[in-house]
Structures are given as structure tokens and as C-alpha cells.
Specification:
By secondary structure, the chain is an alpha/beta fold. Helix content is 23%, strand content 18%. It is globular, with a radius of gyration of 17 Å.
């Protein structure tokens, strides 16, 4: 989570400690007993909610793979430790055009496998650029 995304209940910028996003994270994971198994990363790992930074580092070293929705996980110590990293593109066309036309860094270089909900991305059935990547396809998660 980026620092500029931290706002309080009134929409004003605030610290991570007072951030409504942090509160929402806790409210989402705690009822399912996942508070000790989930992590919200703030400012590339400067601090976390849920799992500690050290616990996350340890778990990432043991993980067989990471499913990264739209490449939002950008924290080096997580990405470097995981054996395989799967980039799931949830916004086909936007993703490919921003990368191809605007040279946007969408964190592709930190991933091994690319999956898109755009069932024609990377096929001859569409003129949308494949960004030089081999895209696999899946239905949108629900």
C-alpha cells in the first residue's frame, strides 16, 4: 500500500496507523481467522498489518509460488524470495496498452507466468499487443 493511499474516516491524509484501509484489512481477515496468515504491506515493507515483515520474509522464502493480482505486490523482499511469481491481469487491454503505448512499468519483469482474464490476449484473435509475453487465460475470479 502506498503512503498516498492512507486516509482517515473523513478522507484526509493520515498515517498508516490511522488509515481506514488498514482498518478494512483487519475487518476483512479477522472474522476468518486469517490475521496471523495475511499481510498488508505499507510503503514497500516499511511496516505491515497482520503478519510482521520478518514473518512475511520467512513465509515468502518457503512459498512455491505467488499469485500477484495486477502486479500490485512490488516489495522486493517478497518477490525475490518466492520461487515462481504469477502475474494475473484483471484489466485486459488497459494493461497491455499502458505497457506498449505508454511504456508504463507494470512490474512484468518480476514475474515468471502471465495469466489474463482477457481470453484473447496473446492470440491471433485480437490486435491488442501481447507485450512480448506468453499469456495464459483464466476466467475472472469471483
Amino acid at each position: 500500500m502506498r503512503p498516498e493511499w492512507c486516509v482517515d474516516a473523513h478522507g484526509h491524509p493520515c498515517s498508516f496507523r490511522d488509515c481506514v484501509n488498514r482498518d478494512l484489512f483487519r475487518a476483512t481477515v479477522e472474522p476468518f481467522g486469517l490475521a496471523g496468515r495475511a499481510c498488508q504491506i505499507y510503503d514497500h515493507g516499511a511496516t505491515t498489518a497482520g503478519l510482521s515483515r520478518d514473518s512475511l520474509r520467512t513465509i515468502s522464502k518457503e512459498a512455491d509460488f505467488l499469485i500477484n493480482m495486477s502486479g500490485h505486490i512490488t516489495t522486493d523482499f517478497v518477490l525475490e524470495n518466492v520461487k515462481r511469481r504469477v502475474y494475473v491481469d484483471q484489466d485486459p487491454v488497459y494493461t497491455q496498452l499502458w505497457h506498449s503505448e505508454h511504456r508504463a512499468d507494470l512490474n512484468f519483469s518480476n514475474h515468471d507466468v502471465f495469466v489474463s482474464v482477457g481470453l484473447n490476449i496473446g492470440t491471433p484473435r485480437t490486435p491488442i499487443p501481447d507485450c512480448g509475453l506468453k499469456w495464459r487465460h483464466t476466467l475472472p475470479p469471483v
